[in-house]
Amino acid sequence: MINRNDFLNNISYLLRETFEGSPEGRGSAYLDRGVGVFATIEKISAETASRSIGENEASIAAHLEHARFYLIALVEFMNGRTEKVNWDESWSVKTVNESEWNFLKESVKRDYEKAAKAFQAIENWNDDNIGEAIAIVAHTAYHLGAIRQIIKK
Question: Which pTM value belongs to this model?
Answer without folding.
Answer: 0.92
